[in-house]
Amino acid sequence: LRSLKGLVYRSLKLDHGCALHTAARDGLSSLSTQDAPERPRAVFHTSESDPAKHTEQHEGRLYNIPLEEVKAVFPHGLPYRFQQQIQTFNEARVMVRRPALEILAYLKGSNFAHPAVRYVIYGERGTGKTMTLCHVVHYCSRQGWLVLHIPDAHLWVKNCKELLQSSYNKERLDQPLQASVWLRNFKTSNERFLQEIKTQKKYMWGKRESTEEGRPLGEVVEQGLARVRSASDAVGVVLREIKQQSHRGSFRLLVAVDGVNALWGRTTLRKEDRSPVSPEELTLVHNLRKMVRNDWSGGAIVTTLSQTGSLFKPSSAYTPHELLGKEGFDALDPFVPIPVANYSPREFESCYGYYLERKWLQHEKAHTEDGKAELQFLSGSNPRQLDRLAGPL
Amino acid sequence: AVGRVLRLCRRWGAAPRAQMLRLICTTTAVQKKNVGASGPEKYTEAFIKKQIEEFNLGKRHLANMMGEDPETFTQEDIDRAIAYLFPSGLFDKQARPMMKHPTEVFPEQRKIQWGEDGRPFHFLFYTGKQSYYSLMHETYEKFLNVLKHQDQLVAEDLPLQKEKRNLAGSRWLTKIELEEMLLEKLSDDDYSRFIQLLQKLVALPCADIEENYIQKFSKKVPVQLQKVVIEPLKYNEQGVAFSTGEGKRKTARATAIVYDNGTGKITVNGTDILHYFPVLQDREQLLFPFQFLGRIGKHDMVCTVSGGGRSAQAGAIRLASAKALRSFVTEKEMEFMRQAGLLTVDPRVKERKKPGQEGPRRKFTWKKR
């Protein structure tokens, strides 16, 4: 007695018409052969793979990023589940949503002689903030900007095994492992810029090694990777150089930070004498804070708030004020807030259609209208919930 | 063994002597009365009358105590007063204190069946089951009456009436009910023979003549749902139809208001269900009534819930929403819902811990020494 319909209307054939997807369903119901694979695709896919050309009419549709580009642009930064999905489906499909379109519009229209504008993407858990950020990062890398992408600032304030006292400044602490990992990924994503940008000062790494003035930035990165002890200082140098040279106009700079509320919260790290470490005492965090200040021009700063990795914050907090705290809010003020909400009905339909098309939903009831309504109810149109629900099906 | 002192009167009736007391030790096992052999306790008529007087007096006293009018004090008022004065948490309703009319308390018994000269009143007394056999005779007499009537109609060439008696809504008396009616014990065989005879009687075409007699032995079976009153839909200011329902599960109590023309949005205690019930299982429970009726995206719901844990609150809201949906739904669908178990209160509650055990069922760890 699971459903009334099966009981009463077994003899009648229900005919649900869905204007948007009738064609798609007819094509999908005959799962044996897909005679017209292009027709269903056209409804919720778009072949426009350049984010620069995405407009409102592409809203709710999924676009494809070729896998080589994914490896080049996103060595780090994509959510873990999305990476698994890329591996399963052998393609990377990102949905075009309104918050991302908003930011792209602002970026296209912004004047780069003015100080950098800060955008803060916020929203409830699992609504797609990191994916929005990745969309923006893809756009900027296509446009040829230098992308400074920090995948999750929370990784720098928790679970750090090694803390070294910084040689540059006695009060600060270094994190060699995190810094070297980040440097490696930065190198993969921005190869050509590292050759073009030249240092403007001489830097001393300890007593014997130094980098002369006018050397390409790639050397600093190599130095940081080779000598892990000075990796954090190398990061600091890279950030400084890039910031100073961005306003000259030879390149545009995008600072993309995911989980920016980590920079102003508390850490779970402790010093050797068991006293807690505050974020300012970490070199990486200190340098990153300088980047996020809007005292430079020639680019933009796009950040995301994240509750999932945050420390000592209740799970119901999602507004900037709650997650950043007073200090962070004052530091980031003024900024442009971009809220990200759950899927709209259209976006939900397109995500559902995509799962159906890739045969991710194997359950026979999942193909029906009722199944779709059930999925929508149970997930509350939340992207993360939908993803987790569709997994076992 | 406890010793009992027996007073012996003087055995030899010679001179008046003081009564001799002899100590005889006996065990209680010998002295216990054999309760089963004497049958159920017999009450005399005088006893019953006295009980009735006492009951009436007590009723008036109770009415006085509660401050109500003694003349118009009904049995329901008595029940309410007793429940108020002697509150009891016992689950079995029949174990709680009660005050009822003596005829309900003391079972009906047979008065003595023979006169002063020792001759029994009824002619079938010596069969042992006089009421049963007299009933069988009576029923057979009616049967023969009907046959005679049938023959008469055939002789007059009149059509035999063939109105089908509605057997669906009625049932025969059970064996226990019949025993109560006849005031004597029956065996299963006797009972089945009587029911067979009744069925034969009813099967005859002209059985309508004896309809009164047959109805004494049949009872109506009410369809479950007839007792439940469906509330009509209410309309709020915007003209949207809505209805309310209440539900409970374990210690959780919930009220739900279901609105028509909705998008499937559900709010619990002011928050969205995705935030209030992070666990999928609870949301599935909320989904069940709507999915069963096929109305997932058609109604909005606003609920309030308190008490219990997460699962109990989910069950309470499910019951409340199912009850509220009754107003939107046809009777047939409501019957389906009832059969699916959506409208029944779940009676399972936490079982009481017993003394001498660690929990309701778990015993203490058994140690050999």
UniProtKB/TrEMBL annotation, chain A:
Question: What protein name is recorded for this chain?
Answer: Small ribosomal subunit protein mS29
Keywords (A to Z) from UniProt: Mitochondrion, Ribonucleoprotein, Ribosomal protein, Transit peptide
Q: What is its main location?
A: mitochondrion
Q: Does the keyword Ribonucleoprotein apply?
A: yes
- Please report which protein family the annotation says this sequence is part of: Belongs to the mitochondrion-specific ribosomal protein mS29 family.
Q: Which GO terms describe its biological process?
A: apoptotic process
Nucleus as a keyword of this entry, yes or no, is no
Q: Where is the composition biased (Basic and acidic residues)?
A: 36-57
**GO cellular-component term (any):** mitochondrial small ribosomal subunit
One GO term in the molecular function aspect is: structural constituent of ribosome
From TrEMBL, chain B:
For this chain, the family text in UniProt reads: Belongs to the universal ribosomal protein uS9 family.
What Gene3D superfamilies does the record tag this protein with? 3.30.230.10
Query: Where does the UniProt annotation locate this protein?
Result: Mitochondrion
Q: What is this protein called?
A: Small ribosomal subunit protein uS9m
Q: Using the UniProt record, give the first listed, main subcellular location.
A: mitochondrion
Say if the entry is tagged with keyword Ribonucleoprotein. Answer: yes
Question: In its UniProt record, which GO terms are filed under biological process?
Answer: translation
Q: What GO molecular function terms would the record report?
A: RNA binding; structural constituent of ribosome
